[in-house]
Amino acid sequence: MYCLNGFRDKTEVVREQAIKFMHFLIIDKLPLNDFYLTYVCPVLVERVGTLELIEESEEIRLELVKFLQAIILKYSNSEQLKPFLNDCVVILCQTITDKHPAIKELSCKCVTDLAEALPRDFHMQAENLIKPIVSCFGHQRFRVRVEAIRATGEVIMHSSYKGLDEVVGPLAEKLFDQIPLVRRTVAQVAARWLQDYRDRYSFFHKILPLLLTGLNDEVEETRNESTQLWEKVGLQYQKENEKDLKDQIDFLLELPKHYPTELKRPNLGCRVLVQRNVGKLAKALSYELTSWQEDVRVRCSQLLCSLALHAEDGLTQNLQELLPAMYSAARDDDQRVVVNIFRASEIMGFFIPVKTWQQLILPVVEDGAHFGHLVVLGGFIKGAPLEHVTGCLVEITKVISDDSICYTRKKKLQTELVKCCDAISEKISKSDPEVGFHLFKILISVISLRDPENSHLTIELLEPLVSTLQFSGLDCLWGAYVGRLLGHIQNEPKSWLVTTPQRCIFETILLHSNSAFGENLPKIGEILAQSLHPEADPESRLKTFWALSTAFDNKSVIFRKSSDLVTEFFEKLISEIFVPSLVWRPGLTAEALRTMAASCLLCALSPIQGVDLFKSGAVLRQLCDKLAPLLISLMEDASFRSRQLALECVTVLKKHASGLGIWTNDDLVKLYPEILKRLDDPTDKVRVCALKILPEIFINAPEAFHEAHFKAHHELIIDTLLTHFDDDDQEVRDLVFDVLKVIAEINRDLVFSKIERHQPLLCNKDGCDAVLNYLNELKLD
C-alpha cells in the first residue's frame, strides 16, 4: 500500500520510481495471486481510467499502460485476472483515446493481449472498446492505425454482429490508406474473420471486399499476401461445404475452354464463396463506383476485376445493375479506374454469354453513345471467346458504325471507336465482308473527322484491317468498300458545309483512294457535280476543289485501271463543274473560287502517259468550244493568279487539240491576241507566263496561218514582240527572243525585215544581232 501511494505523489520522479518498483515486485518477484491485483487495479483505474485527466505526465501514463500490459501477459489464461476484466477495459477505453501516440499504440496492443488472455470472458466487455479503437483509424501515425486495426480484429472476434456492422465501414476506408502495411493489415484481419468469425456465413458479403481488394493492390507484397490468405479462406470454405460441392470437386477439374492464359483461376472454394454473395457485392459496387472520392472509385474498380474473375458467369443476373456504373466509371479522369473497368469488362466478356451482354449494351449505345459505353463494349468484345462472338459481330459493328456514332468529332469517342475496331479485328474472319465494311466506314469517318489532338489517327489505321481481311494491299481494301461508302454519303451533296461529315469523308476518299477513285468515276463524278455546284457553300467548294486538285496530281495511279471511263468522267467534269465555276461573278469569294477552279482544271487537263483523257476529237471539240471563251474571259480577271492559270490552261488545251488533230486556224486567231494583251499585264508573273506559253501556242501552227493573206496577223505579233524586246528585264528579252524564233518558222522574211527596220530604234542591239544571226542560219538550213 505504501508503494502504491507513491503513484499519487506530487513529484513525477517519485511516481515513476514507484511504478518501476511495483512492476518489479508484482511481475518479477511475487507469484500469481489476485490478492495483489485487488490493490493495484483500482489505483491504475484512478490514475488513467477516469474521464478526468488525473495523471498529467505523458511519460508516467505510458509507464502505467506498460505496467497494465505486463499484468495482463503474466496473468494470461488464469482465473486471477477474470475479476479485473472490467477494470482493464475501463482503463483501455481511456488510454486508447489518449493524445500521446505511443500510449494509443500500446493500448491497442493491450486490447489484443487482453482478448488472448481471457478468450472465454472477453466478449462481455469487448463491444465497449469498439468506438475508442475506431477513433484511432484516422491517426496520423501509421503504426497507431495498424495496431488499431489488429485490435479491431480481436474485438470483433468476441463481439456480436452489431460490432461487425459498426467497424466494416471505417475498416473499408483503410483500404485507401497510403501505407501498404495498413492495407495489408486490413487483409489479414478480414482473412481471419472469413475463417474464424462465428457468424461469418451471415456476413461474408460485408467482409469479402476487405480481402478481395487486396488482390489488386499496387504493392506486390500486399497482393501476394492477400492472394495467399484468400486461397486459404477458399480451401477452408470448400472443406466446410464439401458435401454441397462434391460434384464440382469431382468433375470440374479442367479449366473452361479458351480460359485466358494470363489469368490464374481461383480455387473452387473462392469462386463459390463469391458467387453465393455476388448479388449483394454487385449492388454495393454499382453504388460505390460513382463515388465522389477518387480513391474509392479506384479501389472499387479493382474490386470489380476480382469480382468478375471469381463470379464468372454468376454475374449474369447482376450485369444490368452493374453496367450503368461501369459506363460512368469508364469516363473517369483517373486512368487507373478506366483501365480497371476495361479489364473487368474483358473478364466478364469471357464468362457471360455474348447474347446476354449484347442485348444490354447495344440498345444503350444506340440511344446515344459516349466514350464510356465504348470502353465497356470494347472490353466485352476483346474478352469474348472467338467462336461465340463471331456470329454477333455484324450486329455490333452495324450499331457502332451508325452515322450518329461514328460521325463524331469528340476526341475520346474517336479513340475508343478505334479501340473497338481493334478488338473486333481480332475476332473477325475473311468471310465477314459486312463487318469489314462497317469497320472501314468507322475508321474512314474517324480519320476524316479527327480531333486536332488525335493527329495520330491517320490513314495508316487501315493497314491492320488490310491484314485482318487478308487483302493483298491497301488499294484492294479501298476497291472493295469505297463504292458502297460513296453510295452511303451521297445524300444531298449540294447542301454540304465545310464541316459536314459526308464532305470530310468524301475529301478523304479523293485524297487517298488511289485506283479505287478511278474504279468509281461515275459515282464520284455525280457527287462532284452536286457538291461543286455554283449554289453550294463557297468554303465547302474551295475545300473540295483543293482535294480534287491534289488527287489529280496522282492521275497515273488513279486512272490506271479505268481508262475506258476517263473521257466520260472528264466530259461531265468540264461541262457540269468547270464551265459553271469559271463564269464571272462579283465578290472576293467568287474570285477565289474561280482561281481554285482554274487551278483544279489545270491539274485535271495535265496529260499523263499511258492514259488518253479524251477518246476522240469530237468530244474535245465540244469541250473546247465551252471552255475557250471562259478562259479568255478569265485572262482579264482581277486576280493575277487566275489570269496566269487561264494562260496555262489554254496551253494544255492546245496540246490536247493538236494531238487529236482539231487545232484549227480559227482557234489560233481567236486565242493569240488575248495572250499578247497579257504582255502588258501589270503583274510580272503573268507577263512572263504569257511569253513562256506563246512558243507553245505558235509551234506547229496550222498551214493556213503561214499563208500570205495572214500577213497582217504576222505583223501584229512581231510588232508587239519588238515592243517588249527593249524591256529592262533580261528574262523578258530572252523570252521574246524565244518567241521570235518560233514566229520565224511561220514568216522568216517578215521577221527579218522588221528587225532590220527597227534595229536603229531599239536599245537591245545585241538581241537584234542575235535574232538576225539566227535568221541567217535558218535561211542557210
Automatic annotation (TrEMBL):
GO cellular component annotations of the record: cytoplasm
Ranges where the TOG domain occurs: 38-265
Pfam family, one: HEAT_DAAF5
Any one Gene Ontology molecular-function term assigned to this protein's record: dynein intermediate chain binding
Top-level lineage group: Eukaryota
GO process annotations (BP): cilium movement; inner dynein arm assembly; outer dynein arm assembly
Matches recorded under InterPro entries: ARM-like, ARM-type_fold, DAAF5, HEAT_DAAF5, TOG, TPR_DAAF5
The protein, known as: HEAT repeat-containing protein 2-like Protein
Species, as recorded: Tribolium castaneum (Red flour beetle)
Gene that encodes it: AUGUSTUS-3.0.2_05396
